[in-house]
Amino acid sequence: EYLSRLTPQALFYAGPNALRHKVLIVDEHVGAKEAEYSLRTLISHGSLTLRRTPKPGAGGSPTPITVYGPISLLSGTTSDTVNEENLSRCLELALDDSEAQTRRIQKAQRRAWAGKRRAKVDLQLWQDAQRLLEPLLVTIPFAERLTFPARNTHDRRGNQKLLGLVAAHARHPHLAHGAR
């Protein structure tokens, strides 16, 4: 879901399963600033819970609202000062700011304005294939031989991210050695 801004309470009222296995795209990091704690909690713990008090005079006791993840969050920023707690839960990717990349972008912009746009990609096949995927237990036989820096507490999550990326790229045993 594409969002321009998230308020502190917005995620709590999305609905119990509205965010489960979703990618939230917040245009710029500053648009998610107010909801940083909720996002971190949803990413790390896989759920959010809020105890809502009844309206004055309505009676009754507080009721919990729970929203389930997991989620993935995509956001961009040009700022060098991203919250350290957020960075420990992210995979940070830097853009290519080279002159050569700028020239490629400018060339693509000129082609688009000249009416030479690329053909639109049909995503339906990819979306259908993704729906067919089933969970698969992945083990990394060489995991104990991997190393990761141990400079600070952020490296604890960094090590987990490394292992998760290795697991995400694991090949199914029936597809090994080029068999299909």
Outline:
With 180 residues, this protein is α/β, with parallel strands linked by helices. The chain is built from five helices and five strands; from the N terminus they run ββαβββαααα.
Strand order of the largest sheet: 1-2-5
Write down the Rg. Answer: 21 Å
Number of distinct beta strands: 5
**Counting H and I runs of at least 4 residues, what is the number of helices?**
5
Mean pLDDT, nearest integer?
Answer: 84
- Rough outline: globular
SS-derived structural category = alpha/beta
Helix fraction bin: 25-40%
Task: Write up this protein.
- With 180 residues, the chain is an alpha/beta fold.
- The chain has five helices and five strands; from the N terminus they run E-E-H-E-E-E-H-H-H-H.
- The strands form two sheets. The chain has a three-stranded parallel β-sheet with strand order 1-2-5, with helices on one face.
- The two termini are 34 Å apart.
Name the features.
single chain, 180 residues, alpha/beta, 3-stranded parallel beta sheet, two-stranded antiparallel ribbon, 5 strands, 29% helix
Topology:
Layout lengths: L1 E2 L18 E7 L7 H10 L1 E6 L10 E6 L2 E6 L7 H4 L11 H15 L10 H9 L21 H15 L12
Parallel strand pairs: 1-2, 2-5
Antiparallel strand pairs: 3-4
